[in-house]
Design a protein that fits this description.
The chain is built from 9 helices and 11 strands. The protein has 241 residues and is of the alpha/beta class. The protein folds into 2 domains: 133 residues, Rossmann fold (3-Layer(aba) Sandwich); 101 residues, Winged helix-like DNA-binding domain superfamily/Winged helix DNA-binding domain (Arc Repressor Mutant, subunit A, Orthogonal Bundle). The strands form 3 sheets. A 5-stranded parallel beta sheet has the order 2-1-3-4-5, sandwiched between helices. Helix 7 crosses helix 8 and helix 7 packs across helix 9. The longest helix is centred in the middle third of the chain and has 15 residues. The structure holds calcium ion. The site of calcium ion has 5 residues, from loops.
Length: 241
Amino acid sequence: MNEARAADKTAPRVLVVEDEPALSLLLSYNLEAEGFIVERVERGDEAELKLQEAPPDIVILDWMLPGVSGLEICRRLRARDATRTLPVIMLTARGEEAERVRGLAVGADDYVVKPFSVPELMARVKALLRRAKPERVAAQLVAGDLELDRETRRLRRAGREVHLGPTEFRLLEHLMEKPGRVFSRGQLLDSVWGMSAEIDERTVDVHVGRLRKALVRGREKDPIRTVRGAGYSLDETLLRG
Ligand code: CA
C-alpha cells in the first residue's frame, strides 16, 4: 500500500483482532456506526498476514488469541519499520498490574480490560487516532455557525466564544458528529455519560436545557431539535444556512 492511498480522505480503517465472535461483531457494529471501515480476523496468524499486506489506520488487538498471541503480534509490529508507529489498543481479560505493564512494554499505545464499556473503547479509539493520525480525524466540527474544536475544547457560535460545562460540551460534540440523527435519551446516556452511569433519563433534558441556554442568544435559532417521543438531534437545517 503506497503513501498516496494512505493519505486520502476515505474513512479510517480499523482491524479488529478478536476470537470471541459476539464481541468482534459488537465492536464492528459500533465502529461502523462511527464511520470506520472495519476488517475482522479471529486468529493471530491471520492478523499477521493482514498487517503485512495492508496495515490499517488502527488495530484493536485481543491479548489471548489462537495462532499467535496479541502480545507477540504487538512485539512484531513494533519491530518492523512499516508498522512501528501503527496505533494499537490491546484488549485484555487480565486486570493484573504486571500484565498491563507487559502490554505497554511491548509497545501497545493503550489497553482496555474486559469487560469494558463500548463507549469507553470508542472514545479511546478516537482519541488515539487523533493523537497518532490527526489528519484522519477532524479536530474541528462545524455545523452552520457552530464551530467546535476538540483539541482546545472551545466552542464558537457566529464567531463568539461560548462557555460550556464538560457534560454540555460532550453532548454537543456527540450531536455534531451526526447532524440530523435523532438520539434517544438512553443512547445519549450511554454515549455521553457512559454505560456505568446509573442516571435518570431526565438528566439528559436538564443538560440539553443548559446547552440551549448557553448557545442561543437573542433571536438566534435553537440548534437542538426535540423530537417528541424519540429524543434529540442537531438541527440539520442549520447546515443549509
Ligand atoms: Ca481472546
